[in-house]
């Protein structure tokens, strides 16, 4: 069941409606050309002052980097993420080109990952973004230099068989998607004046 379209209140682009974060990945490797397309989509994301603070460390199944990046994951993510053929460490440069702090670095990285995620859907790939990993272990394992900060790890691949997931994760995979109502997230002219 790779399709779990969002029940939106207003029309949105089909890629946005289809996007969700599966945990079941197929054994099939992600082609190098498609990895390049994902990274190219991220490269062209909007960026404050064109700083482009994002950096992506790509680790495909079979590479030593893949196993080392998987080892940084939290215990709850390791069982299902083991099936992902591609892991990507996302880092943000917290310093602007002029040496001042880049307060929008994480925001810009989020935009780059969003662009990558939508491009993945266009290519029949799925992305699951994980905050559950050891920042320090990732920093040390891959010698991430200051002022870069590891932000998240992406699991990327073709959709697989959810019956291969641990029980709890299988239930999550099959469960419905939900979001807070729009009027709790967007305000019309004044704080807490819900958008309708």
Write the SSE topology.
Blueprint lengths: L13 H5 L13 H12 L10 E7 L3 H8 L6 H4 L4 E8 L11 H18 L3 E5 L4 H7 L6 E10 L9 H8 L7 H4 L11
Antiparallel strand pairs: 1-2, 2-4, 3-4
H/E series, N to C? HHEHHEHEHEHH
CATH C-level class: Alpha Beta
CATH homologous superfamily title: NADH Oxidase
Strands in their spatial order, largest beta sheet: 1-2-4-3
The CATH topology is NADH Oxidase
Q: Low-confidence parts, pLDDT < 50 over ≥5 residues?
A: none
Description:
The protein has a single domain, classed as 3-Layer(aba) Sandwich (NADH Oxidase). The chain contains 8 helices and 4 strands, in the order H-H-E-H-H-E-H-E-H-E-H-H. It has helices at 14-18, 32-43, 64-71, 78-81, 105-122, 135-141, 167-174, 182-185, and strands spanning 54-60, 86-93, 126-130, 148-157. Strands 1-2-4-3 form a 4-stranded antiparallel sheet, with helices on both faces. The protein is globular and about 50 Å long. The mean pLDDT is 95.
List key phrases describing it:
8 helices; NADH Oxidase; 196 residues; four-stranded antiparallel β-sheet; alpha+beta
Could you write a compact summary of the structure shown?
This protein has 196 residues and is α+β, with helices and mostly antiparallel strands.
């Amino acid at each position: 069941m790779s399709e779990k379209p969002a029940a939106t209140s207003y029309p949105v682009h089909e890629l946005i409606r289809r996007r969700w974060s599966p945990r079941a990945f197929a054994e099939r490797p992600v082609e190098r050309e498609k990895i390049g397309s994902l990274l190219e989509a991220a490269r062209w994301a909007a960026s404050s002052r064109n700083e482009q603070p994002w950096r992506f460390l790509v680790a495909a199944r079979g590479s030593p980097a893949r196993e080392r990046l998987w080892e940084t994951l939290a215990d709850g993510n390791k069982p299902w993420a083991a099936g992902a053929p591609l892991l990507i460490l996302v880092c943000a440069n917290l310093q602007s080109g002029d040496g001042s702090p880049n307060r929008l670095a994480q925001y810009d990285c989020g935009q780059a990952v969003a662009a990558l995620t939508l491009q993945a859907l266009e290519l029949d790939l799925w992305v699951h973004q994980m905050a559950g990993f050891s920042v320090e272990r990732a920093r040390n394992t891959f010698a991430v230099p200051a002022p870069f900060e590891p932000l998240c790890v992406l699991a990327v691949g073709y959709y697989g068989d959810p019956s291969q997931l641990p029980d709890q994760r299988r239930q999550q995979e099959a469960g419905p998607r939900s979001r807070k109502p729009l009027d709790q997230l967007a305000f019309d002219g004044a704080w807490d004046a819900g958008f309708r």
